[in-house]
Design goal:
Mean pLDDT: 97
Helix content: 10-25%
Low-confidence stretches: none
Protein name: Purine nucleoside phosphorylase
Family: Belongs to the purine nucleoside phosphorylase YfiH/LACC1 family.
Radius of gyration: 17 Å
Shape: globular
InterPro entries: Cu_polyphenol_OxRdtase (IPR003730), Cu_polyphenol_OxRdtase_sf (IPR038371), Cytotoxic_necrot_fac-like_cat (IPR011324)
Structural class: alpha/beta
Organism: [Mycobacterium] kokjensenii
Strand order of the largest sheet: 3-4-7-6-8-11
Keywords: Copper, Hydrolase, Metal-binding, Transferase, Zinc
């Protein structure tokens, strides 16, 4: 038996949020009107065909904690940056505005995961810890496929040279040079290399850069802004 895997990433188009969160802000921690966020989340739930109770959200903290979800939750999963489940039609959700949303799935075993991989979490190993949790739930590395969603690209992610070196030491392949010729980070490149070394070969990278694409939220570009949502679930 093999499950059908669904992966969805939103843009800022649509929704009811007002500037600077316009329009389809799905983050409830950025200062937006809670009623607007609730309306946007309800719209997302309806669009997926799952219903609001089948979307599981995180209170993300830029760490490496992973939670295995065994059913719908009344509220958000607190203080975590990765969710894993084997429950069909239960969507794991990550919100981002420059960090990397990592959506993983083993369609054969029926295991999916959503990861919030920012600089700190990626450096601490949130992605391999998530893979470990998936393997413990029955997944096989060779059967896992991954989508690295929209994130700030190396061309626009300038950091101090010492920081670039520090991240490179923990996440090889991530150090790069920006379009301005300054030290930069390409977290998706580093994560892709990390996944390959874990035995995962089916890796797709969304080419969109949040900082360069006005249709996407970017904290680095705009400061106070909304959040995109990326979801993965088993049909």
């Amino acid at each position: 038996m093999s499950f059908r895997v669904r992966r969805v990433t939103t843009t800022r188009t649509g929704g009811v949020s007002k500037a600077p969160f316009d329009g389809f802000n799905l983050g409830d921690h950025v200062g937006d009107d809670p009623a607007a966020v609730a309306a946007n989340r309800a719209r997302l739930a309806k669009a997926t065909g799952l219903g609001a109770d089948r979307l599981v959200w995180m209170n993300q903290v830029h760490g490496d904690h992973v939670v295995v979800v065994d059913g719908p939750r009344d509220g958000v999963v607190e203080a975590t940056d990765a969710l894993v489940t084997t429950v069909p039609r239960l969507a794991m959700v990550v919100v981002t505005a420059d960090c990397v949303p990592v959506l993983l799935a083993d369609a054969r075993a029926g295991v999916v995961a959503a990861v919030h991989a920012g600089r700190v979490g990626a450096q601490r190993g949130v992605v391999p810890r998530t893979v470990e949790a998936m393997l413990a739930a029955g997944a096989r590395a060779g059967d896992i496929s991954v989508l690295l969603g929209p994130a700030v690209s190396g061309a626009h992610y300038e950091v101090p040279a010492a920081m670039a070196d520090e991240v490179e030491a923990a996440l090889p392949g991530s150090r790069t040079v920006t379009t301005a010729g300054t030290p930069g980070l390409d977290l998706r490149a580093g994560i892709a290399r990390q996944l390959t070394e874990l035995g995962i070969k089916a890796i797709d990278v969304d080419p969109r850069c949040t900082a360069a694409d006005p249709k996407l939220f970017s904290h680095r570009r705009d400061g106070r802004t909304g959040r995109l949502a990326s979801l993965v679930w088993l049909e």
